[in-house]
Amino acid sequence: MGSNKILVASRTSGLLAFLALASCTTTQTQEQSTQAQATMEQNKGETNPLLAEWTGPYGGVPAFDKMNLADVKPAVERGMELQLAEIDKIANNPEPATFENTLVPLERAGQELDRAMTYYGIWSSNMSTPEFRAIQAELAPKLSEFRSKISQNEKLFQRIKTVYDRAQQTPLPADQQRVVQLVYEDFAMEGANLDAAAKARYAAINKELSSLYTAFSNNVLADEEKYVTYLTKDQLSGLPESFVKAAAKAAADRGQAGKYAVTNTRSSMDQFLTYSDERALREKVWNTYYSRADNGDEADNNQNIAQILKLRDERVALLGYDNYAEWRLQNRMAKTPERAMELMNAVWPAALARVKEEVADMQAVANASGKKITIAPWDYRYYAEKVRQQKYDLDSDEVKQYLQLDNLTQALFYTAGELFNFSFTPVPENAVPVFQEDVKVWEVKDKTTGEHIGLWYLDPYARQGKRSGAWATTYRSHTTFDGKETVLASNNSNFVKPAPGEPLLVSWDDATTFFHEFGHALHFFASNVKYPTLNSGVRDYTEFHSQLLERWLSTDKVINQFLKHHETGEVIPASLVAKIKKASTFNQGFGTTEFLASALMDMKFHTVDPEGMDPDKFERETLAALNMPKEIVMRHRSPHFGHVFSGEGYATGYYGYLWADVLTSDAAEAFEEAPGGFYDKEVAARLVKYLFAPRNSMDPAEAYRLFRGRDAKIDALMRDRGFPVPAPTSKK
Fold first, then answer.
1. pLDDT band at residue 326 using 50, 70 and 90 as cut-offs
2. HEC string of 29-71?
3. Which of 615, 292, 261 is nearest to 469 (CA)?
4. 108, 330, 355, 572: least buried by Cβ within 10 Å?
5. CB 155 within 8 A of CB 92
6. Cα(476)–Cα(353) distance, rounded to whole angstroms?
């Protein structure tokens, strides 16, 4: 899953990227207008390298080799200044408002700031430092104020509204109509129709929230860096050799040569809890990971959560909404919190029932081995692996021997070639600047025409200052707005870097995530839209594209070509593949329950009155009411639930992974039913045409109907997870 995505401005979504957290306005005076025009004239000869146009090959690339932390703050501040000048010119245009003189310059505005925010995003996500975090804390409220000056600029909004109202009577061309709709709705959602006093409060709330989001994210990162569990040689029982070698390197890198480091990240924690025979150490590592930002110290996030929820609730009340979820979901596929809850409640009972079966199986294994224990959360992965071996004769570490990262990368490229007709060629070393030596770059082309599509950057390894999880992002999105712009996209992972000369072997789950995040990148590369705003995403829809791509990992063509033993080069045995497929619904109780617990908590947090809330107590009581199994914890406990509390991208939207999975399972069956299976050319063409290339240029529900010929059904999802398929409801 994409994790903790941090909102930064980019050409991915045009103006909307700046408005997602936006708020208040000030009415421009004539003096301000004159000053703004003068500011625009000063744009010539900008010297800050973070603002400069991207030059060099491939349509221009970020100057990552010229990144200097001292340039960040002045670049962002100057970028905001330049964009506000552009906005002021649009708002004060004396000509009657039209699409061409209002929406077009809006789409074009802010390119200098976009470039600066690309570098800002790299520091924030990939290479944070205490020095950067200080700058980030200072800039966060300034960026919030900047967004407010745009999203609630009265003159600007009235021009947008004029174009919108006219388009309701006389529709524009389809793509322009969609741009007007998205921009108008976004401004309206951000309080553009409020009176002056309400706008001022709205802006103040957003400014405070921006600082809270930054503090929340930095607290999580601080605990990930602070807490490392060091092992001695006699504490390595059960651990795979590849993990031991990587842990030795991680310890040496931290000045603890001769020891072995379990870092406080999911990739390290997950492997340790799966294989370590040392139960007391498993408990320690489990507690360390799941108590991130919940330790009652200066990095504790509970008070931040309480304040975030209170401010969000107050803000949407200004707009007349009963709760934050009602406001947030109005332009998502679910539309209402009730529809999102309906889906989650349909799956939750089946997941709980499966957990009971899984725990019983694990307890039986523990009992048979003479362990006088009761299965606890730090035992779940360990004994699940034992059950997997017993029930399916499937050893996860044996599977890892065939999952080498380099081969999996080639599998990604093969899949992209078969479905999208893309080719990937390594860019010569030093031909393109990178921000860290481990980052590699490939050129993406159309296989048939040789046309340049863009560049793909891969940043695979965990390191200090890099946020945990895996994610995809864009440095530049495709548009044909001002001539064709090619795509610059990246995938970012947190694999534990192997010792020198050793292969990087990953778990089946990590390989699936690798495919998932590449699905986001393919969505970027396949884009075929004119206007930047149309590259924006609908949260409970965009995860569908990436979740669907996961399915190609287990196709025969990928297995037979790329899943090869890292030492012998032999293809993974058919018998082992059969075991993997047979075990495909194994542990679905755990996977579904830990995810759904987080998604349900997200929705519960945002549909109740937050006044006086104790987040820790609310989490405990809500999960108890849901009958959360004591052997499982939420995938993301509230104090480190960055999807929801380090920004607003996934707030009340974490359910979207399940919503998207309904689409994924249903779409996968479209391929399964086709003559060519997952490589059927006709279905693949429909996939690209209706689901990937349009991005947000059409309503997602309509796009899916064009692909599938009907709406998606939940039945395929339940079959995929081995759960009972709900009986059809009778219609009277």
1. very high
2. CHHHHHHHHHHHHCCCCCCCCCCCCCECCCCCECCHHHCCHHH
3. 292
4. 330
5. yes
6. 46
Question: What DSSP string runs through 111-139?
Answer: HHHHHHHHHHHHHHHTS--HHHHHHHHHH
Which residues is 490 bridged to in the sheet? 457, 473
**How many whole angstroms separate alpha carbon 454 and alpha carbon 439?**
16
Residues 208 and 248 in one domain: no
State the total domains in the chain.
3
Residue 366's closest CA among 388, 354, 355, 382? 382
8 Å CB contact between 250 and 221: no
Q: Which domain holds residue 95?
A: 16-221
- Residue 508's CB is within 10 A of a number of other CB atoms, namely 18
Q: Which residue has the higher pLDDT, 128 or 539?
A: 128
Whether 43 and 132 map to the same domain: the answer is: yes
**Is position 299 within any domain?**
no
Domain final residue, candidates 221, 238, 265 = 221
Residue 324 CA to residue 314 CA, distance in Å, equals: 9
User: Which DSSP string do the residues of 564-614 spell out, in sequence order?
Assistant: B-TTT-PBPPHHHHHHHHHTTTTTHHHHHHHHHHHHHHHHHHTSS--TT--
State pLDDT tens for residues 701-732: 999 999 999 999 999 999 999 999 877 654 43
Element (H, E) at 73: helix 72-91
Q: DSSP 3-state assignment of 504? A: coil
Whether residue 34 is found in the same domain as residue 116: yes
- Under the banding of pLDDT at 50, 70 and 90, the label for residue 520 is very high
> 175, 204, 221: which is the final residue of a domain?
221
Q: What is the pLDDT of residues 176-198, one digit of tens each?
A: 999 999 999 999 999 999 999 99
Distance CA 655, CA 318 (A): 26
**Is the pLDDT reported for residue 428 higher than 60?**
yes
Do 58 and 163 fall into the same domain?
yes
- Alpha-carbon distance 654 to 595, whole Å? 9
Question: pTM value?
Answer: 0.84
3-state secondary structure of 559: helix
- The whole-number pLDDT of residue 609 equals 97
Predicted confidence at residue 22, as pLDDT, reads 35
Closest-CA residue to 270 (of 198, 377, 350, 345): 377
